[in-house]
Write a structure and sequence with these properties.
- By secondary structure, the protein is an alpha/beta fold.
- It has two domains: 113 residues, Transcription Regulator spoIIAA; 217 residues, Rossmann fold (3-Layer(aba) Sandwich).
- It contains twelve helices and nine strands.
- The strands form two sheets. A five-stranded mixed β-sheet has the order 1-2-3-4-5, sandwiched between helices. Strands 7-6-8-9 form a four-stranded parallel β-sheet, sandwiched between helices.
- The longest helix is centred in the last third of the chain and has 26 residues.
Length: 338
């Protein structure tokens, strides 16, 4: 471990999130660049010209840490090119530049620290969900959808459940309208119009000031885990499978089967870490579909298939799943205790 890596683990990461959530933070002789402070979650970064200017201003003679947290995709967002620019400008080396990320990045002359997001979220979530039991039913509702940001994937799932299966679902869609970029307004006009007329969809209350905590997002005080069968997850990143978040990970502990709109082979990645998913009860072939449109349509079709089952059939299927769900819970605990 280099001296800078030790600094990263033992000093930088010991700071509270709010204390390090700045695009450029100077600590002793280290410049920490946190891309999460600039990421708009649509695979882009805001203010890259200002970032490079500021780093070029303060970076002479410094060591560097680059952080790609909270869903930042460093390849699609341009983060890789920014890092390469800084490495070249200041002649950085693996001893003077650390990159913390979730992908195998091709960046010469840096030390790469790759963090698997599932393992990170397993540990991060545990204090909040550790007392949630594995509810064994019977359940009164089939589906739950807990959406905070209103992406078009989430809006379409919320709309499908709301218009077709409202009585069988718990739905929380915290956005008013649908997040979209102006050049695409005509492509999604029907969804946007529906969202403007029907959202937010409030389960119990809107998050005040859009400020979240783990308790608000996954806590049992806000989620009737004892009353629904499964979740429809729409992940932060639907292009890659390297940023799987609390949306999916919590279900591995609390015992909720799920369908997930994420990057292709996300379920395969979950399985690689030793967890079991839900074939043959669910058709999980969608996970292998690389075309995002086709994968999403396959998920919606699977929702329709499950919705056509009676609640008695749903509860019977859950009982068949219990050994898998109990295995996942114990495997989760095993990873916590490693």
């Amino acid at each position: 471990m280099t001296i800078l890596e030790a600094f990263f683990w033992h000093e930088y990461l010991q700071l509270q999130w709010n204390d390090r959530h700045y695009p450029v933070l100077e600590i002793k002789d280290v410049v920490a660049v946190n891309f999460a402070a600039m990421f708009d979650r649509n695979y882009a970064m805001m203010g890259t010209d200002q970032l490079i200017y500021q780093i070029h201003k303060v970076g002479v003679g410094k060591r560097f840490i680059f952080m790609c947290e909270d869903g930042v995709n460093p390849i699609l967002s341009g983060g890789v090119e920014i890092i390469k620019n800084i490495v070249s400008e200041f002649n950085l080396t693996p001893e003077t530049c650390v990159v913390f990320c979730r992908d195998e990045l091709d960046i010469p002359n840096v030390t790469l620290i790759k963090e698997d997001s599932i393992n990170m979220w397993i540990r991060t979530l545990y204090p909040t969900i550790k007392d949630v039991p594995l509810h064994v039913g019977p359940f009164n509702k089939k589906f739950a959808a807990w959406y905070h940001r209103g992406t078009f994937y989430r809006l379409q799932i919320a709309r499908q459940l709301y218009t077709k299966y409202k009585d069988d679902s718990y739905i929380s869609y915290q956005e008013h309208g649908m997040l979209h970029d102006l050049p695409f307004i005509n492509y999604f006009k029907d969804d946007i119009d529906w969202a403007n007329a029907n959202t937010p969809i409030v389960f119990d209350q809107l998050f005040p000031m859009r400020v979240y905590s783990h308790e608000m997002i996954v806590g049992a005080s806000r989620k009737p885990y004892d009353d629904y069968f499964m979740e429809i997850v729409v992940e932060t990143d639907c292009v890659s499978n390297t940023w799987i978040t609390e949306k999916t990970v919590k279900n591995l502990y609390i015992g909720k089967p799920f369908l997930t709109m994420s990057g292709a082979n996300s379920l395969a990645h979950v399985q690689e870490l030793g967890f079991k998913t839900f074939s043959p009860w669910f058709d999980e072939s969608y996970d292998k579909i690389t075309n995002n449109y086709q994968r999403f349509e396959a998920i919606k079709q699977e929702i329709d298939r499950i919705a056509a089952m009676s609640i008695d059939e749903i509860n019977s299927m859950f009982q068949d799943m219990l050994p898998t769900l109990e295995y996942n819970r114990q495997h989760y605990l095993g990873l916590i205790n490693q």
